[in-house]
């Protein structure tokens, strides 16, 4: 199966460098996506890049979103509900219609730079050593304001028919289910086919547990 891989904020397609070969070894075709990130880029530009990858897939793909990019994966299901085979959401949840995509941190000169590790202390970053943190920080790509403040537009109710799997890193499947039941994740509350899988990692399992993550994604792709 074609597996489209979309990393979260401040990352590009290279975030999947250790995941992609493991997916290939399991018979899949990984497609890491590097999103438009020039200062003038908008959320619509990033959605267009994802949809171009969806439309180029040789078969119905599984679209994987990490963190904030869970919303991009969900937008793909909304735009192509008849063509996206499954959505995998790692460490994040899709925004609701009308929400801002990722208006989380301070903007500087038209972009949202990586804010440092303070906001991610605890379970998010517990499995990253100091060298890994320095590497992440030095490579972090500022998020354009037009992306961070872009408004999410969902239009096709058929997105709820697309099977979804929620990969839970720094929280448990039970916690995720509680948040959904409490109404905190209205999009997933309406999903008709939602599975949960656990991975014992921080917020960036593609960096700290790439082989385990590849195993889980391959299993999700084959319905195991």
UniProtKB/TrEMBL annotation:
Pfam families: Abhydrolase_6
UniProt lineage: Bacteria, Bacillati, Actinomycetota, Actinomycetes, Streptosporangiales
Domain AB hydrolase-1: 3-215
Protein name in the entry: Alpha/beta fold hydrolase
Keyword flag Hydrolase: yes
Stored InterPro entries: AB_hydrolase_1, AB_hydrolase_fold
Entry keywords, A to Z: Hydrolase
Superkingdom of origin: Bacteria
One MF annotation (Gene Ontology) recorded for this entry: hydrolase activity
């Amino acid at each position: 199966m074609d597996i489209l891989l979309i990393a979260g904020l401040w990352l590009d397609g290279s975030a999947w460098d250790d995941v992609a070969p493991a997916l290939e070894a399991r018979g899949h075709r990984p497609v890491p996506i590097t999103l438009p990130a020039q200062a003038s880029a908008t959320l619509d530009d990033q959605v267009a890049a994802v949809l171009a990858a969806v439309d180029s897939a040789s078969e119905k793909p599984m679209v994987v979103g990490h963190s904030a990019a869970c919303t991009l994966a969900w937008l793909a299901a909304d735009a192509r509900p008849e063509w996206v085979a499954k959505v995998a959401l790692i460490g994040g949840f899709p925004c609701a219609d009308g929400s801002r995509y990722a208006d989380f941190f301070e903007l500087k000169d038209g972009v949202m730079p990586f804010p440092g590790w303070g906001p991610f202390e605890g379970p998010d970053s517990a499995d990253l050593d100091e060298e890994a943190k320095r590497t992440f920080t030095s490579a972090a790509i500022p998020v354009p304001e037009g992306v961070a403040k872009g408004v999410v537009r969902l239009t096709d109710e058929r997105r709820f028919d697309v099977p979804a799997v929620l990969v839970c890193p720094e929280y448990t499947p039970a916690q995720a289910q509680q948040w959904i039941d409490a109404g905190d994740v209205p999009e997933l509350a309406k999903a008709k086919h939602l599975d949960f899988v656990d991975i014992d990692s921080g917020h960036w399992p593609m960096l700290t547990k790439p082989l385990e993550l590849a195993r889980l994604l391959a299993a999700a792709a084959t319905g195991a």
